[in-house]
Amino acid sequence: MASTFFTWVRSPAAREYFFSTHFWGPVANFGLPLAAISDLGRDEEVISGTMTATLTCYSLVFTRFAWRVQPRNYLLFACHTTNAIVQSIQGGRFVNYWYYGGREKKYGLHGSEPTSSVTQALQEPGKADTK
């Protein structure tokens, strides 16, 4: 199998493929999933829900395109599939943080409890510390 691959690499068909947009387009497009993967370690506060949803839909549409186009572009398919998966994970992190209590858990907020001494001072004016 390896000899078949190396024979193909030396062929004119391989040179035609490596110097075409069928190769360099997906390679350049892999910046999107790589950026999304690097963002997985960042704080949920900076995730844009609108952009994440847009990139997820974009990647799903172009995943189908890469599969349906003839000849199939497997590199583009892998790129957009990876991006759709990672953007979906980012979307889940966004929803969990903003809508399912992730933010409250992170900052130790519990319902109507005061969040700082300033809030406490405003709620209980007679018990405020005056230094």
From TrEMBL:
Residues 113-122 have a biased composition (Polar residues). It comes from the Eukaryota. Its main location: mitochondrion. GO terms for cellular component: mitochondrial inner membrane. It is a multi-pass membrane protein. It is found in: Mitochondrion inner membrane. It holds the Pfam family MPC. Keywords: Membrane, Mitochondrion, Mitochondrion inner membrane, Transmembrane, Transmembrane helix, Transport. InterPro entries: MPC. The keyword Transport applies. Transmembrane segments: none annotated. Mediates the uptake of pyruvate into mitochondria. Belongs to the mitochondrial pyruvate carrier (MPC) (TC 2.A.105) family. This is Mitochondrial pyruvate carrier. The lineage of its organism: Eukaryota, Fungi, Dikarya, Basidiomycota, Agaricomycotina.
